[in-house]
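Risk register update: the risk of archive-format incompatibility is retired. Evidence:
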Amino acid sequence: MTTIAVSPFVLKDALFQVAADNYEAHVSQVQFDPSTSIQVWQGLTPAATFTDSSIATWQATLAYAQDWETPNSLSRYLYDNEGKTITAVFKPRAGSGPSFTVQLVITPGAIGGTVNAFTTATVTLGIKGRPVITPSAVSKTSWAVAITGTPTGGTYSLTFNGWTTAPLAYNATTAAVVAAINALSGVSGISTASITGGTAAAYTIVFPTAVTLSASGAFTGGTAPAIAVS
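Archived output:
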């Protein structure tokens, strides 16, 4: 028998994305709950008893601060998109662990509240299907980036710990890449990334702490141009 290790955590540095926007600063609770019912059939003899459970249906509970002044706040988003089915991604630990993707059926939340207190709201949203688990990506401090196929145009972006840089030219200098990464310090907390050696098509990024990294490119020219990280 194998002893399985456990890694409990406190929900304190999570990511919550709805459509293309991040709303973790707006919410104090994100919770996906399954619901099932037990079915029992009893025949006319004591042994003819059968028990089974239904397929789980899921719902999401969001607790959040009401904000009716910011045009794209979560309060306004729920109000403006009532009835729509929207993709949402919840990552309980921003720097590690899996993420959970769901199809939320949007319902607006409460308006107003109690005097002399922050106005908050809690809303229950339907989930189509079930949450899809995406295993955690590799997290490390040193990442090699390679652009192959000799593109002659286009751009690419780098995403670390869920934060995506502004588009970079296909032949961006390593200085431009570092600047784009460190420009996200206000949201990522990382401002001292560096690049060691390399060229515009092959270089290594060194982060002060372990991060996940992915890349996406929209290149033109060359022969099957692509970008990869390792």
